[in-house]
Amino acid sequence: MQTIQLEKLDVKEGHKVLDLGCGHGRHCHAVYYHKDCQIIGVDLGFKDILIAREGFTAYPDLTGQSKSVFGLGVADALHLPFANNTFDRVICSEVLEHIPDYLYAIDEILRVTKPGGRIGISVPRFWPEKICWFLSADYHNEPGGHIRIFRATELEDDFTSRGFIKIARHWAHGLHTPYWWLRCLLGVKRDKAFGVRHYHKLLVAEMMNPKGIVAAFGKLLDPIMGKSVVYYFDKK
């Protein structure tokens, strides 16, 4: 399930790419097979890093032709263990909403991105997220949960005021919004509830067949009720 579009991020061969808050590695894996480059994934959770590594070891090279290399490690977004101007591209997807001092994380992204480099940022969209918070306190009120709801224009200003230039914006995961509303209504931890379980099959069908009818319908919903807002910025 990719949120950041690698074509818009313009990942090229030889690039050094950082996936900040990589989680289970969905964008790390996508970059690895997209172009021959170096992808570094970092996250605060060691268990997440182990799962991300399993994704590489289980399918080390699906094409038999990839020359990409990867690295994974635990790191704090407020104190990244990298030198200034290290990365050609940076991905930070669904991370900033978890960080109390997220402006420091933006400063760190700026610091490690090369001049002229590009970043892809995504956070939950304001009004779908607002409804989730209204329907269920458990959705966000737990360790490591969402601690803020971003207004897109405010987030854009946070980046442009620090020396980034907005390149593009779009929305993603239109089919996921009703799914999370349903989970909030039935109980966010009840992922095996009848309605939730069957809706999840629809999401799997979307991901497994990106050119199918379900995926096409999801793309129609993206600008209307996409769960995430996605920005692309260039560093001056």
TrEMBL record:
Pfam families the record matches: Methyltransf_23
GO molecular-function term, one example from the UniProt record: methyltransferase activity
Gene3D superfamilies in the cross-refs: Vaccinia Virus protein VP39
Protein name, per record: Class I SAM-dependent methyltransferase
Keywords: Methyltransferase, Transferase
CDD domains, sorted: AdoMet_MTases
InterPro entries: Erg6_SMT_methyltransf (IPR050447), SAM-dependent_MTases_sf (IPR029063)
Any single biological process term in GO: methylation
Organism taxonomic ancestry: Bacteria, Pseudomonadati, Pseudomonadota, Alphaproteobacteria, PS1 clade
